[in-house]
Design brief:
Number of domains: 2
CATH superfamily of the largest domain: Periplasmic binding protein-like II
Number of strands: 12
CATH architecture of the largest domain: 3-Layer(aba) Sandwich
CATH class of the largest domain: Alpha Beta
Strand content: 15-25%
Structural class: alpha/beta
Largest sheet: 9 strands, mixed
Number of helices: 14
Radius of gyration: 20 Å
CATH topology of the largest domain: D-Maltodextrin-Binding Protein, domain 2
Distance between the termini: 38 Å
């Protein structure tokens, strides 16, 4: 599927929960179940995995037309809030709920890592489609508003073979509560004491410069339309929309692009806890891309309808197995095999 139909479909999926009367249910091929009546699942949250979830839910529904899954990419912060308030059947986020947030959910919480990926720094510089390098000093300085032009000596010194224009830098960043922002700002905090003290990290931060734009697709559109613009998006958006992407300096002093291999090497350094929470702000390994994260599905332990619980388990099991292969094509990184095995076992906690 091309980027344009995917983008249209992403917008189309941002609707109300489907009417159960208009759907039917059938067990997935990989694991027959006793689901015999119409089941609808409604989720909301991170825009980071939007391309993959859209593909998963469409493919799953094609094979199992009796199960209808609707997903609204509203950002991780909104997804967590809707999950905590019980207005969705599942949430999605790049930042797992805290212990305090989990304690608010009487139905219990199950965290399922679904996919991994990277945060790309994307730009629109006339005449510069590839080859831009940004160091650990220059990247935070740009997003702090301290480097204001593309031909600044600090950028030029890193890119002697690139013709940089005398053009103002326009920073764009997320305006909504975002897991992509959390991963991006965690890295900036790890490499810049000034960033850590002045801005910090989180789903929302107080930016020192730039224009706030809603969701990954909004940032991507602004990059496409505006000359001199720089921002950050989940790499799948950069890949699908063919956005110019900067090579970032990692902890080992190497400049890396967010390729599948470089992202996978960084993801491999993340140590997940027993309940699957974990992250790495600055991977310490050769050839790794420095800004990566897992993305999680937030499920309840208890559902009023056991058939709905079974349907969600089946959908997630399919995504963790057959659905993983779809990630590479779209710009994500399949989960490590050991994480997949543990995540599948964790599914047994849903509905029990």
């Amino acid at each position: 599927m091309s980027a344009i139909p995917l983008a249209i479909a992403l917008k189309a999926c941002q609707g109300k929960p489907p009417d159960p009367k208009e759907t039917n249910t059938q067990a997935p091929e990989s694991k027959p179940s006793a689901i015999a009546t119409a089941i609808s699942l409604y989720g909301a949250g991170a825009t980071f995995p939007s391309f993959l979830y859209l593909r998963w839910f469409k493919e799953y529904n094609t094979k199992n037309p009796n199960v209808q899954i609707s997903y609204q990419p509203v950002g991780s912060a909104a997804g967590i809030q809707q999950f905590l308030s019980g207005t969705v059947d599942f949430g999605a986020s790049e930042v797992p709920p805290t212990d305090k947030e989990i304690s608010q959910v009487n139905r219990g919480v199950v965290l399922i890592p679904s996919v991994a990926g990277s945060v790309a720094v994307v730009y629109n510089i006339p005449g510069v489609k590839t080859g831009l390098k940004l160091s650990r000093q220059v990247l935070p300085a740009i997003f702090l508003g301290k480097i204001k032009k593309w031909n600044d000596p600090a950028i030029a010194a890193l890119n002697p073979s690139v013709t940089l224009p005398d053009l103002p830098i326009t920073v764009v960043h997320r305006s909504d509560g975002s897991g992509t922002t959390a991963a991006f700002t965690a890295h900036l905090s790890a490499i810049s004491p000034e960033w850590q003290s002045a801005v910090g990290t989180g789903l929302n931060v107080s930016w020192k410069t730039g224009v706030g734009i809603k969701d990954n697709s909004g940032i991507s559109a602004q990059i496409q339309q505006g000359e001199g613009v720089i921002g950050y998006v989940e790499y799948a958006f950069a890949k699908q929309l063919k956005l110019a992407t900067a090579a970032l300096e990692n902890r080992m002093g190497q400049f890396a692009l967010p390729t599948e291999d470089a992202t996978a090497k960084a993801i491999a350094t993340i140590k997940l806890s027993d309940d699957f929470r974990g992250s790495v702000a600055d991977p310490e390994t050769n050839d790794a891309y420095p800004i990566v994260t897992y993305s999680w599905v937030l499920a309840y332990k208890q559902y009023d309808d056991p058939k709905q619980a079974q349907a969600l388990k089946d959908v997630l099991r399919w995504g963790l197995t057959q659905g993983q292969a779809m990630g590479s094509e779209l710009g994500y990184v399949p989960l490590p095999d050991m994480i997949v095995k543990k995540a599948i076992a964790e599914l047994d906690k849903i509905g029990n």
